[in-house]
Amino acid sequence: MATTKWAIDPTHSEIGFKVKHMMFTNVSGKFENYDATITTDGDNFENASISFSADVNSVDTRNADRDNHLKSADFFDAENHPKLTFKASSFTKVDDDNYELSGDLSLRGVTKFVKLPVEFSGLMKDPWGNTKAGLNISGKISRKDWGLNWNSALEAGGVLVSDDVRLNIELQLVKQ
Fold first, then answer.
1. How far from 127 is each of 1, 11, 148, 172, CA to CA, in Å?
2. pLDDT tens digits along 88-122
């Protein structure tokens, strides 16, 4: 079967995350600059080969001070670790609409194995004849697993930033 290459359509995709702030509200962020290499056997995504990288300096939480703090050594340490990378070890079909994505997430010089649920939205041709595929990747990781330990205690108890980071990755892929 022919190998198919896919590219991320950046105008219809978002690499997002949410972190609980002050124990009760979520702060959302995303990475503006990223790249991926995705290959499949024909149009079958099972066992797809996936590698991804994001430019840490492109983090955007709609607040320049917070973004600069995230880029600092307290969090991402962008100066020494400018890229966040993911290399899939498996992409396994659970049922018609769901997959499980497993692989190594490298951040701040630390690599850890992660397993994330993926909703496959299917294949569709756009009005210009391009074949598109939709993938929604969710899941939760603990930022402390990658050495992102900075926090601040709150006077009323609890902490400023939760350990859990919820991933919200919406990908529209274009067949090359």
1. 27, 16, 44, 15
2. 999 999 998 999 999 999 999 999 999 999 999 99
Kindly report the three-state secondary structure assignment for every residue of 79-97. CCCCEEEEEEEEEEEEECC
Q: Which of 26, 43, 17, 50 is nearest to 170 (CA)?
A: 17
- Alpha-carbon dihedral angle through residues 105, 135, 75, 32, given to the nearest 10 degrees: 120
Nearest to 49 by CA among 6, 85, 93, 105: 6
Going along the chain from its start, the domains and CATH numbers come out as: 3-16+31-142+170-175 (2.40.128.110)
pTM over 0.85: yes
Q: How far apart are CA 142 and CA 83, in angstroms?
A: 18
167 burial (CB, 10 Å; 0-12 / 13-18 / 19+) is middle
